[in-house]
Specification:
Amidase signature (AS) enzymes; 2 domains; 14 helices; about 40% helix; AtzE family amidohydrolase; Carboxybiuret_hydro_AtzE; AS_sf; Amidase
């Protein structure tokens, strides 16, 4: 069920896109993970039939021919309300046109089959949604899938779809990718098209794909970006220490040591990462809260209280406090630039531990239990805070549940991240976890 394999079979006429779409639709309707918010049967079958017609006429429908995919429920889909995971938007006016990312995937032959679950308004790391339900991790249904793009990750990790799109503001692609055993990309800020994506924090928001193999992730990313990601394997690689070495589970500590030995990696440290995370929290709360002020004034009681209270608090932050956070952001980006003068790629954990349980969705930070919904971004927030690209690679032989690492590059450095991820997959260090039952 690889992305490249499906496309090759459809383009060669060995199978029909309509048959692949029907199989995907059957899986999506049976969804055991609470990953799906809406199955798009009519649209999927029409798009698949169009692909088959091109093949029958001797044409090439594109590098994603017949590949079924889903999108997080904050991408505009023509004719549907864009819910952004919120009960208050169930009856919103339907989108007039598709998001630009959907336009590009359709032009490459991909077939849209579903919209997928998320934290309300993307404000959380757990996909615990008061209206649509809590998305379950395919590798242990008693555990969360991560968030806020948990539905996208669970759909791919559970074998419902080979490809899905999510969004990442503070870790919302990277965290579920790591917890579900997938590859996931948070690009350089603004590197992939955001037109037609419901916003959370404009200065942090990005979109990106999930896939079970690095080749599939590359194909999807090249189509979305319109650029080749070819590059030599980078050689100047460092493991981030300091903040990124604290609060780690034993399995993650051991995994980082194996990666360092495999790559001959050095060590590096960013200064004041704790301040960077705090500043990211402040800017997130303020931008997100300010955006929602009109809707909160109109129908605050329709919001999940856990989301509403954080947005209201953010909207009331003093402008001077936010300005200080923005000034620190500029300084922190300069510190990262200096590190990239010495190193091609930095490696950091994506999460401190495997997926927490739904019954007790907490993690340990500083020896204290804290809510996973707010704190799973402990290692992702400081990096997206300054717009760096980050590619999550799922680890092999890391324990009974998935763990993932972030490969982090300078702005525009995605190609080197893919080259390193491909090396790690060839070396058997990383690779997507098989879907349950496969």
């Amino acid at each position: 069920m690889t992305i490249a394999g499906i496309a090759a079979d459809v383009r060669a006429g060995r199978c029909r896109a309509v048959d692949i779409a029907r199989e995907a639709l059957d899986r999506l309707r049976a969804d055991p993970y609470v990953a799906v918010t809406q199955v798009l049967e009519d649209r999927a079958l029409a798009e698949a039939a169009a692909v088959d017609a091109i093949v029958a006429g001797g044409g090439d429908p594109g590098p994603l021919a017949g590949v079924p995919y889903g999108v997080k429920d904050l991408f505009d889909v023509a004719g549907l309300p864009t819910t952004a995971g919120a009960r208050s938007r169930i009856d919103a006016p339907p989108a007039i046109q598709d998001a630009e990312a959907i336009v590009r995937l359709r032009a490459a032959g991909a077939v849209l089959t579903a919209t997928l679950n998320m934290d309300e308004f993307a404000y959380g790391f757990a996909t615990i949604n008061a209206h649509f339900g809590t998305t379950r991790n395919p590798h242990d249904s008693a555990r969360i899938a991560g968030g806020s793009s948990g539905g996208s990750a669970a759909a791919v990790a559970g074998g419902l779809l080979p490809l899905a799109l999510g969004s990442d503001t503070n870790g919302s692609i990277r965290i579920p990718a790591a917890l579900c055993g997938l590859y996931g990309l948070k690009p350089t800020h603004g590197g992939l098209p955001l037109e037609g994506v419901y916003p959370f924090v404009d200065s942090f928001d990005d979109i990106g794909p999930f896939a079970a193999d690095i080749a599939g992730l590359r194909i999807a990313t090249e189509i979305l970006s319109g650029a080749s990601l070819a590059a030599p394997v980078p050689t100047r690689i460092a493991i981030l220490g300091g903040w990124f070495a604290d609060n780690l589970a034993d399995d993650m500590t051991a995994a980082l040591a194996r990666i360092a030995a495999c790559l001959g990696a050095g060590t590096a440290e960013l200064p004041a990462v704790d301040v960077a995370r705090s500043a990211a929290f402040l800017i997130t709360a303020h931008e997100g809260g300010t955006f929602h002020v009109p809707a909160l004034a109109d129908h605050a009681l329709l919001y999940d209280p856990a989301t509403r209270d954080r947005l209201i608090a953010g909207a009331t932050l003093a402008e001077g406090t936010v300005a200080k956070a923005q000034r620190f952001r500029t300084w922190f980006a300069e510190q990262a630039d200096r590190l990239f003068d010495a190193w091609d790629v930095l490696i950091a954990p994506a999460t401190p531990c495997a997926a927490p349980t739904i019954a007790d969705p907490t993690i340990l930070v500083g020896g204290q239990k804290v809510p996973a919904r707010a704190h799973l971004g402990i290692y992702t927030q400081p990096l997206s805070f300054i717009g760096l690209p980050s590619l999550v690679v799922p680890l092999r032989d890391c324990g009974p549940l998935p763990l993932g690492l972030q490969l982090v590059g300078p702005p525009g450095g995605e190609a080197r991240l893919f080259a390193l991820a491909e090396k790690l997959e060839r070396d058997g260090v990383s690779g997507g976890w098989p879907a349950p039952g496969l």
